[in-house]
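Is this the right way to post structure tokens for a design question? Let me know if I should format differently. Anyway, here goes:
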């Protein structure tokens, strides 16, 4: 049974990647971007992992990443294999915080330079909270830090505006009293931008994995000097066997 606490909590796995693994990932991605041409993943990119119903990809990018970023949605196989191995290795620690998680989606590589950031938003239990599999949390692992800025943050909120549906009686694989957040909880919605929130900033050590529930607002501060590179993915719950 999926409990609401899993979708609004934060957690960390220190040492998710060791120094040698980080160095190898940095080498793999540097070589990949040099070979493929970085512009198609940065200034020339016309698609995004973020979507807003009724908006074009360009409009969604303007909302989520107004100053742009580098985004590689299909990373080299060597990098994917290494990161999935790290996930498998960390599963005992992950399961203590988010016991419903069964697997990790493919990883995405992102980079932010000066002025670049991601605006606050909820991922949601995408794509459909009543279908399987269910997206329980995001995961982020920094490979290299910016010289200044670029901190990750989450935002807590007590407003009723955030929540749309309460599921009673422990149905549909959720624990009793599960709440589902409104769709469109991002900076394209006036109700969301006007809603009071409290920000919690964190600067994890390179190689540490940050976990953030899919119904928790999160984003990054603008980089002010240097560049930050990281891998992100989503942790999901698959339908239990009957």
């Amino acid at each position: 049974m999926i409990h609401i606490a899993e979708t609004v909590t934060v957690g960390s796995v220190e040492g998710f990647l060791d120094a040698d693994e980080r160095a190898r990932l940095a080498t793999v991605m540097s070589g990949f971007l040099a070979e493929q041409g970085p512009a198609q993943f940065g200034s020339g990119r016309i698609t995004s992992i973020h979507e807003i119903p009724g908006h074009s990809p360009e409009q969604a990018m303007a909302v989520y990443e107004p100053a742009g970023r580098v985004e590689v949605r299909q990373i080299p196989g060597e990098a994917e294999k290494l990161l999935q191995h790290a996930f498998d290795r960390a599963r005992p620690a992950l399961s203590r915080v988010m016991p419903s998680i069964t697997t990790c989606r493919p990883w995405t590589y992102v980079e932010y330079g000066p002025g670049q950031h991601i605006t606050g938003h909820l991922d949601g239990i995408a794509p459909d909270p009543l279908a399987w599999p269910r997206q329980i949390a995001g995961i982020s692992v920094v490979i290299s830090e910016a010289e200044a800025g670029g901190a990750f943050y989450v935002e807590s909120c007590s407003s009723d505006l955030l929540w749309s549906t309460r599921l009673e009686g422990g149905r549909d694989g959720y624990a009793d009293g599960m709440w589902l957040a409104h769709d469109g909880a991002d900076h394209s919605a006036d109700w969301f931008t006007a809603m009071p929130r409290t920000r919690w900033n964190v600067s994890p050590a390179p190689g540490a994995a940050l976990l953030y529930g899919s119904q928790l607002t999160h984003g990054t501060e603008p980089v002010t000097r240097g560049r930050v590179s990281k891998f992100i993915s989503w942790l999901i719950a698959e339908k239990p066997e009957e």
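Format looks fine. Someone answered above. Worth noting: The longest strand covers residues 134-144. The radius of gyration is 18 Å.
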